[in-house]
Amino acid sequence: MSASGKEHLKVLLRRSAIQKRVGEIGKQITRDYRGQRVHLIGVLKGASIFLADLVRTVNLEVSLDFMAVSSYGKGTRTSGEVKLSKDLDTSIEGLNVILVEDILDTGLTLGYLCRVLKQRKPKDLKIAALLDKPDRRVMKDVHADYVGFQIPNEFVVGYGLDYAERYRNLKDVCVLSLPPE
Ligand code: IMP
Ligand code: MG
After folding, report:
1. Residue 105 is a catalytic residue
2. Tens digits of residue pLDDT in 100-124
3. Structural domains in the chain?
4. Which of 8, 15, 1 is nearest to 170 (CA)?
5. Using one digit for the tens of pLDDT, what is the confidence trace for 148-164?
């Protein structure tokens, strides 16, 4: 049985606003690292679309890598458990690393990834998150250096973000309302 008929989507961030903000972040990164190389690490799969757009607005020497974690399972609530399911292909020692994530929610995922990456001695480690839900933060010491939008405590999909692997292809970021369980 498909529940999709009962799910409701409401646009929160339009594609035009997202494109504009992504361009601003790219310019900011370009200014911050002038004359240097940056190594962008995308957190699969949610950050893939943000990363693809962001990297094309960064006017520097850039390299890419990806990591994958699982923290949410199929639902909308965090399990509190983070597992590294795909590691980097290459060393990050001495590199200016920017960890690119779709959303900073409780902070468990990024907190965990930052701990793992710091042990590998990058020259610099920053976080770029398209979305930030500050009300949900559990890891109070996890902050994003580059944030697209602060959003209220609602479950959102689109522009890479999913609900049970669906909706990643939406061009806008939308609030998803689910039928009562
Ligand atoms: P955190 O570890 O709680 O900060 O959650 C980070 C991960 O949870 C993100 O990378 C997303 O995959 C997922 N997540 C958190 N909030 C949402 C949401 O509103 N929509 C879709 N995925 C979300
Ligand atoms: Mg994710």
Report:
1. yes
2. 999 999 999 999 999 999 999 999 9
3. 15-152 (3.40.50.2020)
4. 15
5. 999 999 999 999 999 99
